[in-house]
User: Fold this.
Amino acid sequence: MAGIGFQLRDLYKQSHFFSQLRAYGYSAITAVGPMLLTILLITLTREWLLFLHAPTRELNIFMAAVEYAFIFSQIFTGGFLFVISRYVADQTFIEKEENVLSSMYGTIGVTVLIGFVATIIFYWHSPLSFSFKFLSYLFLTELSIIWVQSMYVSALKDYKRIVKSYLVGILIAGLIIWVLTHFFQLVTATSVFSGLVIGFFFIMMMLMNDIFRFFQINNKKYFQFLAYMEKYPQLFFIGLFYYLSLYGHNLAAWTGKHRIVVEDTFVIAPYYDTPVFYAYLSVLPALILFMVSVETSFYQSYKQYYGRILNGFPLQDIQTAKHEMYRVLKLEILFLSQVQLLVTFIFLFLGVRFLPFLGLTPDQISIFMVVVIGSWFLSLIITIFLILLYFDERKAALLLIGSYAILSFTVSVIIILALKNYGAGMFIASLISTLIGVRLLINRLNNIDYTTFCSQPIIYKESITRMEKMLKRVGHLD
Assistant:
């Protein structure tokens, strides 16, 4: 988020209230704006199909395919996103931006291939029509490409254009769905997916155009970024486990008594997935606050500490900067947790008051309440996880997010099968993982002097990985 971060810092430095309010507004638009617009489109589409009395079969197929597309497009791309994030940052820092655009093409190629193979295997014995399979595959592919593009558009400074791309595409999708279902009476999952595919195609192309305007050189070394897969293997597994952790308890719920099989193809548990969907919205404020905190207050103290080290300041001045960084970090985490706690109480109140009007049963509202409380701990896990990455503590970050991914799934499976309780597994896993994260963060901060001054080799020797040797032979690496 470097390009956007500069604008946030400039706004936040201004003392008057409205400039700081704009900083929070811009971070909200950047962090959750596109996702909120997408969620709004899917939610309104579902309500529209219910209003039109769409056949239950078509509604179930639509919701199941959308859920699968969102979950697995993120799982397929998650590992690569963290790798290319580091790659793009490094290439920009060493002023080799000619490598950036080609890496996007290479990443898209790899992730689209993975999605294609997975779709063929998944749909091989499915009784669904070929037209629906093809459209749902296109939607999965578009989402995968957009997730990859998101790592590159974060380097752009025009955040308004990013949101505009999503807004235009979603309006086009909504308009096409409305025309097909209202005027042509095509109240089917296939017609709805036609609108989604066309709308998200516009999003994809508009984002691509913005990236072309910023990164104009393509040196055709499409797979040079793969060297980072071997150089920083933790990053790939961090990204993979991050998205597995978000949906681990959902996957566990698909093994319980509330699982349903849609057209002998999709296994879902809407009884559990629906309240979890609404509960997860409570995490969005934490993402906004973290972006502002990291890119403004904490960044300044972080920069001052490492700046004094690099510029050879006296040890006393370095220690003073370190303690100031710790103080700011503690205050920011405390502030974020307090605000998120307030958001949690607000969601609990709104859920009990309004979710019955959306058709949720008392048991589903209980699941919602448990997951909302668990999401408070999840917000802390994400915060600690991102801070560890900020200090380049990749092993600690992998241990934290890997622990939560495993616990989220296994604890949920055990509790669902043994106690027939839904939601408690996510809550227990997030609580335990938060304690693990706090311990990891304190340990790494206590050892920051050793990590900074002693963990690096005295004589640096550039090592060449096997992937780099192979890429050199095929001409994809200098």
Notes: The longest strand covers residues 260-262.
